[in-house]
Amino acid sequence: MIDIDFKAEAEALAAQLTAWRRDFHANPELGFEVHRTAGVVARALSELGCEVRTGVGQSGVVGLLTGGKPGPTVMLRADMDALPIQEISDAPYCSRVPGVMHACGHDGHVAMGLGAATLLARHAQDLPGQVLLVFQPAEEGMGGARAMIEDGALADPQPAAAFGLHLWNTMPLGRVVAQAGPIMAAADVLKITIRGKGGHGALPHEAVDAIAVAGQVLSALQTIVSRNVDPQETAVLTIGTIHAGTAFNVIAETVEMQGTIRTFSATVRETVLTRLKVLLDGVTAGMGARYELEIQDVTSAVINDAAMAEIARAVAVQTAGATNVVWQPPFMVSEDFSEFANRVPACFMLLGSGNPALGLNAPHHNPRFDFDEDALPTGAALLAAAAARFLAERRPHAAGS
After folding, report:
1. Which residues have C-beta within 8 Å of that of residue 142, sequence separation ≥ 6?
2. How many angstroms separate the CA atoms of 357 and 343, rounded?
3. Strands of 290-299's sheet, edge to edge?
4. What domains can you pick out in the chain, each with its CATH number?
5. C-alpha pair distances (Å), 36 with each of 24, 365, 368
6. Cys staple from 296: which of 88, 122, 189, 387, with CB 3.0 to 4.6 Å?
């Protein structure tokens, strides 16, 4: 086992971690347009002696840190993109970009990823293998992980394991979740277009009211989870937008609805999709309307590998203390780290970053989101320690040893 006190070394890096995080927070970028962030990352990795590839999956960065001894490759991942939200904050590092902010902690993820790279680079000669450092664009529903994978992020070398981490503001500062099994749900985006027949509001018998049809559809959809999904399973079906109508006295011809489906099980997902189509068929036909349904598969569920979760849990106990390592019921939010976990044994950890006493507990995707930066050294240490422990446990052994 590699005997390194990553937590102590990470604490000594706290000022640099905070500086990185605040720079990224003040200069947020959306989706695949993370060019400034990627440039900072690429320069930092190069200065650490990593072999660096840029433009992976359009704007992702991949660094390869080679250890001084032969061994497998382990991957660490951080996401870089922000959200289209106007920040409400008087912090000196608040967003300088109108309508764009880091409201999900990805600025912290990049800082912790660079921190982990820094810690591991210091001990590169002792590492039995390689560390693949993946900095990903477009996590927020835009397929950044798939784009990077399709562009060869997991090839040459192919990692034997992967670890990632997400700051979590609804958990107290320093709390860590590192557990086997499902931790975040699969996400589908659905768009339903109801097509009726427009007409005068005073002559409803001459029209097919798409709004009336949509009302029946909404009511029927609420029965899918409550009456078609096994109550011991989990699913969510939410309609988030409805757009219809042009005037108070015009019967709408078209209604557009958008929503999301969240599941952990492929079987449950298929049940929801099947019942969705059956109900749409029945309701629209019965009311003389038509419909169009579009389903976008955003990402699958994050399912942590048992062996990788055991490694993550062990380093979490060492780094954060046993009382701070807890079990958490799976969340219905989604994360495209699952694209890596579907291909490589992986564990995705959660790190508590909330501090109500300092007013740092607004939820994710909220215009007032901010987190306690004291979480940054812990996160960097967790990632570095997980990578080092995996390499140490899987290193080749000399014959006869």
Report:
1. 31, 32, 81
2. 41
3. 235-244, 254-263, 186-195, 290-299
4. 6-183+301-394 (3.40.630.10), 186-299 (3.30.70.360)
5. 9, 22, 24
6. 189
- Candidates 139, 188, 336, 370; catalytic one: 139
CB 347 within 8 A of CB 184: no
Is-catalytic flag, 81? Answer: yes
Residue among 9, 79, 81, 87 flagged as catalytic: 81
How long a stretch of residues is the chain?
401
Longest Cα separation, the chain: 91
Helix or strand run (H / E) with residue 204 = none
CA atoms of 394 and 71, how far apart (whole Å): 7
Q: Would you give the distance in Å from CA 23 to the centre of its chain?
A: 21
- How does pLDDT run across 9-64, given as a tens digit for each residue? 999 999 999 999 999 999 999 999 999 999 999 999 999 999 999 999 999 999 99
What is d(CA 301, CA 311) in angstroms, rounded to the nearest whole number? 21
Q: Which position has the token pair 């210091």?
A: 122
Confirm if 102 and 25 have CB atoms less than 8 A apart: yes
Active site residue 297: no
Nearest to 5 by CA among 400, 395, 391, 385: 385
Q: Which helix (H) or strand (E) holds 183?
A: strand 181-184
Q: What DSSP designation does 248 have? A: T
Residue 394's pLDDT band, with cuts at 50, 70 and 90, is confident
E strand or H helix at 115: helix 106-122
Token pair belonging to 67: 């250890």
Tokens standing for residue 77: 């991942």
